[in-house]
Amino acid sequence: MRYKDKNKSAGFFPIFKKNQASRQIVFILFSIQLIVFFLSIPLTYLNVPVSFSSTWEVLANFDTLVLSPLLAPDNFPSYNYSVSFLVAQAACFLVAGALSYLRLIQASFLIIVVAIFIFLLAYNAPPNNSELILKVGLTSLALLFFGYFLLSFYAEYKGRRQMTNMLCQYIPPELVSLYSDNPEAVNLKGESRELTVMFCDIQGFSTISESLSPRELATWLNDFFSMASEIIIRYEGTIDKYMGDCIMAFWGAPVPNPDHASAALEAAMEIQRELIPMNERFKAEGKPEIHVGIGLSSGETNVGNIGSKYRMAYTVIGDTVNTAERLESQTRTYKVPIILSKETALLIPGIFFRDLDVIRVK
């Protein structure tokens, strides 16, 4: 069975997508057009020029001018609609159905084409219908385009809010604001950039997980992840992923940060400090304490959107990432909470570091 890509555009229009938002916009635009068409019915009975005052008269005498003809049509004269008027209204209904699938330039072009079409219909229509076709048709188009513009603006605003909320889960809110105000400041394409990478892993997790139920383990892990993630974001880090009991994060992308090494080290030390009161609470609740090892490494790293057409991830790869992971694992060997590479230490002046050892990294 061949896989059908649901993300591809379909239909005549280049961005035709059958989603809930487009269906809602179609429904609203159809409702606008239906109201305009419905209000034009008694105007033909009144046989008066189409204007705001005549439309207001229809609304003020709704029961007499609209309901009475519908309930007792034999007591009123027949409609004087021409075929041209019905064709013009049919064109407006088609516009109402098509606008939500078009971009602004395409929608503007469609409105202009239909407006010219209505002008031609009015020019060739009977004299008693010409004004009705022109004014009702152009009013319909104006209301449809205005409604389309407002609904599209709202959909764009809602989409940006959703994207902002999603990005705030990975990078600091102020960086999200910077990206919204100046998209050129953020580069999501693949590139080589100097970053600092962090690996933060819970020690003895396999043994601890066997002593907790699945629900207790999830709650226990979520408490730690929430605390650590909040600190990482506070220090302008980007959360790459959660890998079981490990958090991977990096500093310096997507927005460049010249102090990426210092920010990463401060975040690492803050996580270790916050674990002290958290473990006291866990101990009082009868839960296992959490002890983590943190590895930091700085250097040139490949960063960008990596994946396939089915799923993409903004992540980092390279020797710097591998080194950070190996340094994290060495925290168990040397019994220290944080180990950073020589390259990271050189980027943080004013702090004295203890030289642990020289190790060979595969």
Quaternary organisation of the protein chains:
single chain
By CATH, the topology of the largest domain is Alpha-Beta Plaits
Order of helices and strands: HHHHHHHEHHEEHEEHEH
Mean pLDDT rating:
78
Set down the secondary structure blueprint.
Blueprint: H1 20-46, H2 52-60, H3 62-71, H4 83-98, H5 104-124, H6 127-167, H7 173-181, E1 191-202, H8 205-210, H9 214-234, E2 238-243, E3 246-251, H10 260-284, E4 292-307, E5 312-317, H11 319-334, E6 338-340, H12 342-346
Parallel strand pairs: 4-6
Antiparallel strand pairs: 1-3, 1-4, 2-3, 4-5
Helix pairs in contact: 1-2, 1-4, 1-6, 4-5, 4-6, 5-6, 9-10
Which descriptors would you attach to this protein?
12 helices, 6 strands, single chain, 2 domains, Alpha-Beta Plaits, alpha+beta
Structure, explained:
The protein is an alpha+beta fold and 362 residues long. α4 (83-98) runs parallel beside α6 and α9 (214-234) runs antiparallel to α10. A hairpin with a 4-residue loop joins β4 and β5 (312-317). The chain has helices at residues 20-46, 52-60, 62-71, 83-98, 104-124, 127-167, 173-181, 205-210, 214-234, 260-284, 319-334, 342-346, and strands at residues 191-202, 238-243, 246-251, 292-307, 312-317, 338-340.
